[in-house]
Amino acid sequence: MPIHDKKLSDSEARKLPVPVSGQALYWCPRNPGFGVRVTPAGARSWILERSVHGKTVRRTLGAATGRGAISFEAAVALKTTVSSELQDGRDRRAERIEEATAARAEGVTFAAALRDYVKTKRRAKDGLPLKARTKADYLAMIEPGHPKKDGAPTLDGALYSLADKSVVQITAATIKDLHRALAPRGERQQTYAMQVLRAVLRHHGVTIADNPLSPTTAGKGRVVLAPSRGKPSPISAERLGAWWRAASAIDTPSAASLRFALLTGCRPGEVAAITVGDCDLRGGRVLLVDTKNRLDHTVMLSTQALALAKAAAKGRVATDPLFGIADAGKTLEAINAAAETRGVSQHKLRHTFASVAEELVSAAVLRAMLNHSAGGDVTLGHYVGKTEAQLRAGWQTVADHIERAP
């Protein structure tokens, strides 16, 4: 900490040089931990700095010049008071922030807080906003149920009961009651809703006494969220050939998109988002833009998938969707009925691709084809790289297996 060469005073504070950029700190040689901060705009403030429980803490005591300025003597007296309070565990700055947060939160409904969250939330690691699908999922949680086309009602959103409640009125009991009420919807929806609730409250700095979603709350008072668990449900090996033949017998864009999904392992939303301009039909590639992990992903097309892409792109312009999908759900129902594969959803086609590939290619190739991050695997993440030829061979091996399945 550089020390100023003269004792600080009211007149000395006014004469301190103004920095070109950043801020300059001038510490008093007669009063340790007491100084003046000067900004490029010429603003001057009395400050203190001291160590509290091994951590350096700096606080502003007041303006040294201009409107609302306090004198040198007043600043020194305040420095002694604030320093003692910090040592005793009281932090005026933290109290003011907490009071300001509570004042802003008062009257703000949870619905308004959630809408602000989806609008302003940015990922810490790359600054990217939430994806449109994620925003829609979150916002649906505060919407009331509505009648279906057949008149049957749908359930209210998982967080609808909090929509009109002020965020400062949400208590530990409120959260526990909601957690119990969501149990009939299944563990996955229950956990998802609690995760969103926790994220919104954190985003707005809402503090709840004995918050059951906080890791600092004692175990008996905590709501334990189930860890994320995959539940792969691929088409069985015995019915894979039947499913492929049933899907190949239907000559529609929707059926083609389903076969393309199985051959490539793409997610349903990724297939629907592909445009003709995303396809390099000469090179046999498709670019998936801004995928679930927020990275672009190139799919090397097998000969079977390339044939589907060429047929779908014929007569279309670059901005057109590759597959004109209108009735994928009904088409899938028809395929499942013909193949006797009950309950196969679009996402389970990705499960099937992964399950087939797991037996045919290396773990590194499978991870790359599925566009999965390496997570904590240092070897896969930092040492193992796969060439385009290796990946293309992987997709071709899987496609050949599917096409030849008995």
State the low-pLDDT regions, or none: none
Q: What's the domain count?
A: 3
Spell out the helices and strands N to C.
Answer: HEEEEHHHHHHHHHEEEHHHHHH
State the helix count: 16
Q: Give the CATH architecture of the largest domain.
A: Orthogonal Bundle
CATH superfamily of the largest domain: Intergrase catalytic core
Shape: elongated
Structural class: alpha+beta
Biggest beta sheet attributes: 4 strands, antiparallel
Determine the N-to-C terminus distance.
77 Å
Cα-based radius of gyration, to the nearest Å: 30 Å
Q: What fold name goes in the CATH topology slot of the largest domain?
A: hpI Integrase, Chain A
Helix content: 40-55%
Estimate the mean pLDDT confidence: 87
Itemize the secondary structure elements and their pairings.
Blueprint: H1 10-15, E1 24-27, E2 34-38, E3 44-52, E4 55-63, H2 72-87, H3 92-105, H4 110-120, H5 132-140, H6 172-181, H7 187-203, H8 237-248, H9 253-264, H10 268-273, E5 279-280, E6 285-288, E7 297-300, H11 303-313, H12 328-339, H13 346-360, H14 363-370, H15 378-383, H16 388-404
Antiparallel strand pairs: 1-2, 2-3, 3-4, 5-6, 6-7
Helix pairs in contact: 4-5, 4-7, 8-12, 9-11, 9-13, 13-16, 14-16
